[in-house]
Design goal:
This protein is globular. It is mainly β. Helix content is 13%, strand content 44%. The chain has a single domain (3-371), classed as TolB, C-terminal domain (Neuraminidase). The strands form eight sheets. The chain has a four-stranded antiparallel β-sheet, with no helix packed on it. Strands 2-3-4-5 form a four-stranded antiparallel β-sheet. It has a four-stranded antiparallel β-sheet with strand order 6-7-8-9. The longest helix has 9 residues, at 3-11. The N and C termini lie far apart (46 Å). It is built from six helices and 28 strands.
Length: 372
């Protein structure tokens, strides 16, 4: 499936993020605790990613198409404007990197995507991940859909607009970015891969995420309107990486959406992965409702934003527990002082602005930390 189906499901129907307490509880067995998030800005639209560096809060807002920082009173201070589909942002020394994607609003197909690297003395480099994907398409090694489907399964999936059987297609949606060594690593939700990108814009494939197999049960087939012949069939969905961070152990940690329907029909299938220096991928935890972002804590714990669960969960040594209820949460980040920050999407019904919140405070107050 192209990014249109993979990410539009997560971000096109934002109202679904405002989950009921029962929906939140269903993901990991009990309701999330209720610390009081402190709103630091309510003047945003779609702050898909945050970066807390050099005493500032950086954000990439794909609704406003700006990359900026928070100013006095939480006002956005633009650094880069008119940046189509911006979604990822990271600082690395004197470099600022952010992702952009040009999407046809009618077909949801991406015609351009890449990483913008703004450096010292006004230098600007654009790493064209769309062009790299067209040339290399690294997930062509992955098989998605059903292996050896019967005619009944083929007809049913085709009627439901599910691709029946295919290998990785050409599609790039550079979604998130993290500082990595002397350059950056990008999670591409269209290519299903991690790119390693130098400060001069050189791109290489760091890892390809594996397909996400799911065995369709009778209740799921009924919920999807599929016939009995589909029950028991294993469908390999695309992995859809949504964020990447460097762990305290030097490995990369990645969140993925499961591809296909993201909702109650097929259950909570978002996952957290570890990628070592050789590109070997292993699953750390799963069962997230819309894993759109992650952050690494001071002790190596991992915080996962669950858009459709309306909460942030904490993963510690593979054990998943609810951390905080936060409807519309799309991003999470941690600061050097140990505080946890998050961002939420704007919403029409119920009306709500896009926000950046501080959930826990570290050793210093936010305003002192931000301006020191």
């Amino acid at each position: 499936m192209r990014t249109s189906t993979k990410l539009a499901a997560a971000f096109g129907a934002v109202a679904l993020a405002f989950a009921t307490p029962a929906a939140v509880a269903s993901a990991h067995g009990k309701p999330a605790p209720t610390p009081n998030p402190v709103v630091q800005s309510d003047q945003l639209a779609a702050p898909f990613n945050l970066d807390l560096s050099f005493g500032k809060v950086y954000f990439a807002d794909g609704g406003l198409n700006i990359v900026g920082t928070l100013g006095a009173g939480g006002a956005p201070v633009p650094i880069a404007t008119d940046q189509p589909g911006t979604s990822g942002v990271a600082r690395s020394g004197s470099y600022l990197a952010f992702t952009t994607t040009v999407t046809n609003e009618e077909t949801f197909e991406n015609s351009a995507s890449g990483l913008n690297i703004w450096g010292p003395l006004g230098s600007r480099v654009y790493a064209d991940t769309h062009a790299f994907e067209v040339t290399n398409n690294p997930d062509k090694v992955n098989h998605y859909g059903v292996t050896n489907p019967s005619q009944c399964v083929t007809d049913a999936l085709t009627a439901a607009q599910f691709p029946v059987s295919y290998t990785g297609q050409v599609d790039s949606h550079s979604y998130s970015v993290a500082s990595y060594g002397r350059g950056f690593v990008v999670a591409d939700a269209g290519a299903n891969a991690l790119w390693k990108i130098s400060s001069t814009g050189q791109i290489s494939t760091l890892a390809v995420l594996p397909p996400q197999p799911h065995r369709i049960t009778a209740p799921e087939a009924t919920a999807l309107g599929l016939p009995a012949c589909v029950v028991g069939v294993t469908y390999a969905f695309e992995p859809v990486p949504t964020d990447v961070e460097v762990g305290r152990d030097g490995a990369l940690y990645v969140t993925t959406l499961p591809g296909g329907p993201e909702g109650p029909q097929l259950g909570a299938r978002g996952s957290l992965w570890r990628v070592d220096g050789r590109g070997h991928v292993s699953q750390v935890a799963t069962g997230f409702l819309g894993a759109t972002n992650l952050a690494i804590g001071s002790r190596g714990e991992v915080y996962v934003a669950e858009l459709f669960g309306g909460q942030i969960s904490k993963v510690d040594h593979g054990r998943v527990t609810p951390f905080v209820t936060l409807p519309g949460v799309v991003a999470v980040e941690t600061a050097r002082d140990g505080s946890v920050w998050a961002a939420t999407l704007a919403n029409d019904d119920p009306p709500a602005p896009g926000t950046i919140v501080q959930i826990t405070k570290g050793h210093t107050h936010w305003r002192g930390w931000i301006h020191r």
